[in-house]
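Notebook B, p. 112. Complex prediction, attempt 2.
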Amino acid sequence: MAAIKEKHGTHCEVNTMSYEENKPKAFERLNLDESSYRVYEDGKVGIFHCIGTVSDEEGYAKAQADPERARPYPFSPEAGSTRVRDLSETEFSAGELMALAEEYMKYLTDNYPQFTFSGKFTTTRQTDTFTNDLGADYSNSDASVGVGIMFKHKDSKNIMDGDFEFNMRTPDDGTKFREMADLYLGKWDTAAEIPEDVILDMQYYGFADSLVSELDAEEMSLGNSRLSGKLGEKVFADSFTLEHDATDKESWYTRFWDGEGCVIPGDKLLLIENGVIKIGYSDKRVADKYGVPHTKTAGRNFGDLTYPGGMNVRIRRSDKTIRELLDGRCAVIPIDYTRSQLDQKGDMTIVINSSLLWDGDKVIGRLPEFKVKTNFYDIFGKDFLGVGSDNPATYHDKQMLLRVERV
Amino acid sequence: MKQQYHFPENLYSDIRIQESYSTNLGMYNGELTRDNATSNVGALVRVYDGKLWYTSSVNDLEKIQDELDALAKLATPNENIYEDPAIKLLEVNVDERLQYTGEKFLGNIARSRFLTVLNHYVDACIDPEYPDMTSWSISVGGDYEKKSFYSSKGCAVAWDYQLCSLNVYMSFGNNGEPMGGGKNFFGMMPEDLYGHEQEFLSERDRLVDYIANAVDVEPGEYTCILSPITTAMFAHESFGHKSEADFMLNDKTLRDEWVMGKKVGSELVSICDSGDMPNHGYVPYDDEGTRARENWLIKEGVLTGRLHDSNSAAVLGEELTGNSRAQDYRMRPLVRMTNTFMKGGTDSFDDIIADTKDGIYVYMVSNGTGNSTFVLNPVICYRIRDGKICEPLRVRMVTGSVFQTLFDIDRVGSDFELFDTYYCGKLGQGARVSAGGPTIRVKKLQVS
């Protein structure tokens, strides 16, 4: 069989304007390329991971230069066609970035002089590519403007009291920033009481990551997962559906192909539906070794073989807004908190050093330190109240309501 | 050390070049799943006009001069730039400390030497029939880093660092309540990794006992004995980050709270940070070219120092400490720890346990954080009753006030250990560090 050549690439350009203690600190720019050259031949693949640029000729030559490191790969490389996706919406110059940073910092220092602020304002433009001798020619481009603010009350003995951040493909007129700043800072000095029934309004990234790690088909097959042996079983709430979604516009710089160049039809994979475990995710090696479905979800690994992963999951939204889900109750927005790891039984404690109480519309005040506990099965089970149909100013995206027990 | 760059006039500028090489072999349940080697070269170019830093990261070293010139055009020339307080402080060191050249360089070490270490540990430590074991993994590899730094003040330094590592890990499915554990070992060369077989096997037996017998802790306030690795985590996460001065530049509250000479803890407590130790936080010259020092942050309970870059040292009117560090050439430096440790004392571990009527022994932790209330996340704990270690405990969190806990340390062990395991995160940047300490006893902490 003739050698098949394959190249994975990333080109990334980032400009950052940073502020420290209310003052401009640095303007930084970054322009980087990274590639993986792979040559498949006789059931093996030679790999060269290049940070920077080399000619393709040199890259492929280096991939074949060290036969000792050629990895076993008893699978067919992925054939494909041409597909180009560009999710970017606007160009944003360095000058515009500096002006936006100055305007936003002025808003903060004018309106909230009792705080000091550090800020990072970033434009990122990234293009990922995948090409091979079998006709695959994929490209995904995306661009965003990111804002990240850390704040500290001048009377606080903490190093930092909290932060908020968001990304935009097209910057608005500053409304989103002002809403978020007002929400986080406006009632900081007003004390509120911890409600009897505690409902957290949090972004679900961390919780979802914990769940996704349990859906690795290899770990499920070995018995290392809390979900081992539970395929087809209803484990979580009726209202809980989790899917990998390469079309999710609330994610950034996602690709529609996996680390082996596979494309899921429709770009989505249903992992959990209405609380029922549908499938564990795999790459070709895991699917072959454990006899499980190949889900085309290999994590990209420029320097080595792939692994199951590289997921871009989202929880299916409810039909109701966050306010409707709250149904007259208040929620706690944790600002500074630490989660324990899940213990052997799946229990988790969260220390909430500072948080805000809000009613789904306006903030009532800041809460004192307290602790809550929850459990792996309850987070997306009996205590899962849903992901709203909207994105209030509390967070930019992916927020869920979760009932927890105070300890 | 000879630099070849033309620095623009009336601006301060510097260039940091980083060359790195890493290799890793990993086996999972008998299958070689990782086998890679990657090299990486890049540079960060910085220009400062007294108001703003302008930086650019490049992979192509041929472009450094072009980037320097381009950044200079963005900046405003300042003929008094060398009178800027931060720039004035910067040292002009000229030195080369390259220890890993020729056959010692990781890139020249044959892959087979790592593979031999890996196979040795498979034979010595893995019994595929071990009861209830659902998976195992062993990985062995190494990381090499060389930094060269040149500044328009004339600083020109180069140094390198290399560490080989071994991780042995086992998982137990435990009927849907999975748990795993293992050990990390370190050395300068692959062969330094031999000799830890029994340490791993003891750790495995401890884990198996823990899984079988651990009971839930009754939440509450306890006297806690922290193992050396737990003390190390506390010293780094809970106290160390507060010593990084870039968080308190113009903050009156923090400056008043952390004023030099203030008593901040028990006289048994001394904490130090030094980049000049041959450990995972080795940084003989920081990313502004400043030479490393031994910086005592607390001496016998009294605040004696903090960690600086040139800006924080200038603002606070203190000396440079050699703690300006960036994750890599893509990042600008921040104030970071290096090798941070609490000094050992005179008590034996056995005496500390025997002297504790009722408490909890925090043997192993996974991670920790430190605001005013610090959090440690334990993995394995034990109950102490009448001076004896008793049943294993499931503890999810140990918390306390940093300020109070430093005063509540009443026993300090002689069993000091330094751990090279750590990578520290701050503002999106990772940094290799080490942390250390002895067994200590804290009169009371919240346990849940």
